[in-house]
């Protein structure tokens, strides 16, 4: 009897839907015009845009449609059914309400319901049905009403395909929809559709996780009772740094990160492709059998769909899925470290406590996911925090991940980030450098959509900008905005003419800029550095402007041989700051120090890490020899600071995986007292030219000219004079050009630099020379005693010139030292030595000339020589020579003035 009853009940239950369906279709609203029967029974699935909308849609008659298994996170009171002529931005925004039914404030969980159209709307008017929030013009999800050709599918029919993992098998319907769903944890779900005919299983992994997290799922070794991870065949999925989804086939041989052991064998959690010979491309393709189908990141939820074969051709690293049997599957969530130059594959980090295993028979129908996956932190947009000093660069670019679709094709970018959330502080003026093109006028408004607000009959308050605020890269428009006490907590940056190009501005009270007296941006504008200096201590804050797992700043020109402060958030969400002394390039070279830090804070907000601490300027360890005692901050001298960011840090067991993924390319020197910073740059080529020119002038031309004047007087004609004059003028010209080059490159002359001081002295001495050469008094008539004035002049001229060269050489040395200090150039030392050698050669040459001259002098003095230095012309006789004894020409003592030929006897003999 009980049996009969239940059979009856079952059959009744079976009949009820049919009955209901026939009632609703036949007993439709009387005035429903039956014009368009072609769309009846049209069925499709919702395209997910926002609020995790899922479900299927069926037109049941001319004035109603049915929605089944509908999921949606609540969207506010103004969410309605919307009809449009197309799914483009323009067509959606010019759509209209099609039903009185509202998608009111509840969250929909696998709901089934029927919606009737407004009486003045027919299916002919509608090409797209959307779940629409009117106030924000948001499309939560939509279906496109177009009949898919039911005709025999063009060859090859999908049912014939035997999936091997080399190309994606076509899926019917939306990639977000599957036959089954299983809850793995409260933040992680597995969805799947199995098609044994095609030898394929479609797997959808859905996790309310951070965008930098991976989601892993796979099959454990079926011959193992425990230790499910060892030997498991898993897929690791996630998003690249650019936001593109990926999936990779992994195999686990050891509870460790993927490494190559001493025998060259790969072990750990590694991609299948790493186990095979890296040269064998065919082999690599054979083992790489997971195919990405689709992936997105919406409402703080990651979703990735991929396919893998049930029976894999890769027998080494993949397991066959016995789809009719219970099999053990394992899963994990955790941070992933992006590939770098050493390791070209993604490295899943330790999953903390987020892992588990589960028995799954994929052919069984399961749906225990109730409603959409929800998370508190829905906004994934990048965060840009305004800074008083650096203007925010406003540009426009393609809308790829606009937070509120649909959006125009072009949207606003700030600091190269697409429509980020902008945070400003009350009382801190914000500067925008607007270069988004002349057709994009930028403004700050109270209206969430912006753009031609009056045409929508809305009121708005404009806080800054307007029709004039437009510019291009070559001629940016600078706009200043000072949010004040009366600015609401949320306003919007938008384009004045086009809607939905910008996004939210968060206005907050006092942040780091308020708390610290000084701030600078470190290299690449990726890290902000804040500080306040007091008598004995310094308070420091650093904020990474990019999502990361840890942030490190170090005092030094590079990470190696510096003291680094690392701020990170542990698995329990607690922030830490620790100091290390780094003396090498690997994880073993990080030595934690016992530095005493106070007011330590570290927090992560949307992946942006901020750390704060206060320390003594001088650790003051009373003569202790500990390494941290050397970590002294000298406020008066510039402090070089570098930074690094990476995926994960821990207070112990640091490994290679904790190495940074991004780092500053150059140190920035911060003047703690003046609150300014200057980047340490590579030696600019122009400065190298400056150095070379100065060497040419002061190392060759000037000394050469002097040597010519001193040792070539015996050469016939006024050759020496010409050489002297030409080389001195050339030297002077080159010097001026060199100064111009350097000043133009650096845009100023920092007169507080030693090099610049010496340089100026050199130039002054150098410039005196042509002036005093011009003022040269006439020497006495030929054969007469030279005038005293002339002798004095010659002394001045010669000693001025010589000292100019000596000071010039010092200037070159100071320049090289500056080069070494400032640019950390390893070549500087070599160059200095080369210069020293050059000078030694010069000095030896001079000594040799002096020596041979003296010898000649002696010879001539004793009547052995037969020549005169100087040809008797008044310009050329050197009154300063050592051979003038008490103003009397030695030559004259030796010989009467006679002209003689060029004789370089000393060199010949
Ligand atoms: C719609 O489907 C129902 C049941 O499957 C069928 O009875 C009806 O004829 C179909 N209507 C049209 C217009 O195809
Ligand atoms: C959008 O609407 C315009 C007319 O307003 C039409 O020309 C265009 O084809 C439509 N686009 C789509 C994708 O339906
Ligand atoms: C929301 O809709 C449900 C059915 O869809 C209805 O029962 C409920 O009364 C509605 N609530 C409001 C506040 O409109
Ligand atoms: C909607 O219908 C499906 C079957 O089509 C059923 O599994 C599900 O429980 C229904 N949803 C609700 C909320 O009753
Ligand atoms: C349908 O009628 C409503 C008023 O009942 C009106 O607001 C709406 O604009 C009309 N829609 C169309 C497409 O005419
Ligand atoms: C598909 O290929 C796999 C392995 O290559 C094989 O084991 C399986 O029998 C094939 N399935 C069909 C339906 O041909
Ligand atoms: C596996 O194949 C996919 C698609 O063919 C490719 O994008 C991916 O880079 C491959 N993975 C490896 C590790 O070679
Ligand atoms: C398969 O696993 C489920 C639980 O996941 C269990 O209820 C069921 O009994 C298992 N079936 C077999 C044949 O082991």
UniProtKB/TrEMBL annotation:
Segments traversing the membrane: 687-711, 723-744, 756-775, 796-816, 831-851
InterPro entries (UniProt xref): At5g54830-like, B561A, Cyt_b561/ferric_Rdtase_TM, DM13_domain, DOH_DOMON, DOMON_domain
Residue span(s) of domain DM13: 40-146
Protein localization: Membrane
Cellular component GO terms, alphabetical: membrane
Keywords for the protein's UniProt record, in alphabetical order: Electron transport, Membrane, Signal, Transmembrane, Transmembrane helix, Transport
Major location category of this protein: membrane
Keyword Electron transport: yes
Leader peptide range in chain numbering: 1-26
Protein name in UniProt: Uncharacterized protein
Native source species: Deinandra increscens subsp. villosa
Source taxonomy: Eukaryota, Viridiplantae, Streptophyta, Embryophyta, Tracheophyta
């Amino acid at each position: 009897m009980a049996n009969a009853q239940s059979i009856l009940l079952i059959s009744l239950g079976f009949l009820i839907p049919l009955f209901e369906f026939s009632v609703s279709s036949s007993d439709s609203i009387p005035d429903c015009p039956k014009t368009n029967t072609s769309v009846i029974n049209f069925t499709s699935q919702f395209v997910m845009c926002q609020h995790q909308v899922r479900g299927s849609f069926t037109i049941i008659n001319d004035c109603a449609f049915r929605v089944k298994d509908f999921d949606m996170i609540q969207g506010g009171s103004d969410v309605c059914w919307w009809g449009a002529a197309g799914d483009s931005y323009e067509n959606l925004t010019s759509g209209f309400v099609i039903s009185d039914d509202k998608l009111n404030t509840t969250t929909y969980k696998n709901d089934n319901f029927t919606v009737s159209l407004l009486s003045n709307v027919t299916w002919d008017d509608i090409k797209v049905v959307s779940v629409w929030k009117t106030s924000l013009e948001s499309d939560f999800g939509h279906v496109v009403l177009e009949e898919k050709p039911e005709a025999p599918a063009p060859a090859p029919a999908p049912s014939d395909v035997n999936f091997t993992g080399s190309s994606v098998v076509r899926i019917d319907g939306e990639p977000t929809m599957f036959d089954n769903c299983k809850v793995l944890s409260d933040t992680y779900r597995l969805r799947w559709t199995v098609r044994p005919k095609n030898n394929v299983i479609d797997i959808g992994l859905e996790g309310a996780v951070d965008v930098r997290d991976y989601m892993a799922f796979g099959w454990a070794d079926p011959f193992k009772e425990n230790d499910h991870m060892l030997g498991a065949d898993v897929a690791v999925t996630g998003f690249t740094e650019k936001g593109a989804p990926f999936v990779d086939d992994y195999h686990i041989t050891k509870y460790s990160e993927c490494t190559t052991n001493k025998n060259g064998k790969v072990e750990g959690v590694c991609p299948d492709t790493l186990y095979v010979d890296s040269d064998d491309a065919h082999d690599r393709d054979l083992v790489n059998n997971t195919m990405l189908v689709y992936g997105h990141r919406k409402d703080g939820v990651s979703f990735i769909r991929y396919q893998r074969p049930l029976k894999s051709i890769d027998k080494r690293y993949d397991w066959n899925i016995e789809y009719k049997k219970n099999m053990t599957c394992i899963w994990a969530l955790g941070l992933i470290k992006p590939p770098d130059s050493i390791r070209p594959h993604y490295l899943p980090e330790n999953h903390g406590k987020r892992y588990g295993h589960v028995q799954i028979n994929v052919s069984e129908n399961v749906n225990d996911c109730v409603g959409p996956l929800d998370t508190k932190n829905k906004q994934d947009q990048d965060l840009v925090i305004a800074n008083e000093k650096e203007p925010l660069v406003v540009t426009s670019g393609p809308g790829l991940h606009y937070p509120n679709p649909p959006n125009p094709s072009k949207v606003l970018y700030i600091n190269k980030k697409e429509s980020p959330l902008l945070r400003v502080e009350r009382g801190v003026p914000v500067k925008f450098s607007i270069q988004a093109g002349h057709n994009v006028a930028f403004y700050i408004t109270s209206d969430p959509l912006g753009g031609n607000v009056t045409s929508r009959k809305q009121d708005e308050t404009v806080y800054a900008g307007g029709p004039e605020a437009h510019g291009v890269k070559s001629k940016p428009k600078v706009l200043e905005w000072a949010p004040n006490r009366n600015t609401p907590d949320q306003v919007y940056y938008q384009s004045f003419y086009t809607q939905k190009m910008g996004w939210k501005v968060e206005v907050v009270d006092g942040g780091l800029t308020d708390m610290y007296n000084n701030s600078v941006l470190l290299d690449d504008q990726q890290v902000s550095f804040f500080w306040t200096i007091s008598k004995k201590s310094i308070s420091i804050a650093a904020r990474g402007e990019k999502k990361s797992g840890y942030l490190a700043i170090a005092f030094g020109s590079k990470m190696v041989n510096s003291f680094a402060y690392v701020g990170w958030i542990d698995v329990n969400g607690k922030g830490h700051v620790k100091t290390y002394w780094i003396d090498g390039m690997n994880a073993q070279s990080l030595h934690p120090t016992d530095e005493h830090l106070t007011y330590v804070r570290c927090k992560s907000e949307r992946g942006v890490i901020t750390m704060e601490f206060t320390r003594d300027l001088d650790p003051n360890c009373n003569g202790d020899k500990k390494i941290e005692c050397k970590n002294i901050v000298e406020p008066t001298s510039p402090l070089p600071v570098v930074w690094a960011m990476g995926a994960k840090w821990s207070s112990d067991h640091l490994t290679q995986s904790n190495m940074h993924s991004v780092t500053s390319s150059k140190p920035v020197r911060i003047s703690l007292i003046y609150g300014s910073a200057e980047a340490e740059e590579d030696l600019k080529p122009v400065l190298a030219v400056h150095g070379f020119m100065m060497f040419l002038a002061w190392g060759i031309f000037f000394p050469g000219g002097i040597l010519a004047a001193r040792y070539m007087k015996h050469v016939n004609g006024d050759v020496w004079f010409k050489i002297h004059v030409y080389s001195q003028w050339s030297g002077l010209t080159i010097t001026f050009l060199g100064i111009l080059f350097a000043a133009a490159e650096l845009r100023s002359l920092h007169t507080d630099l030693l090099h610049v001081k010496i340089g100026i002295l050199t130039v002054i001495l150098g410039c005196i020379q042509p002036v005093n050469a011009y003022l040269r008094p006439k020497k006495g008539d030929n054969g007469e005693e030279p005038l005293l004035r002339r002798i004095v002049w010659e002394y001045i001229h010669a000693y001025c010139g010589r000292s100019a060269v000596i000071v010039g050489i010092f200037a070159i040395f100071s320049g090289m030292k500056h080069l070494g200090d400032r640019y950390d150039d390893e070549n500087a030392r070599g160059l200095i030595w080369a210069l020293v050698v050059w000078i030694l050669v010069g000095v030896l040459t001079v000594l040799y000339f002096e020596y041979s001259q003296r010898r000649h002098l002696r010879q001539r003095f004793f009547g052995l020589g037969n020549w005169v230095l100087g040809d008797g012309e008044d310009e050329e006789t050197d009154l300063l020579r050592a051979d003038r004894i008490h103003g009397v020409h030695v030559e004259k003592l030796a010989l009467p003035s006679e002209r003689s030929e060029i004789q370089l006897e000393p060199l010949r003999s």
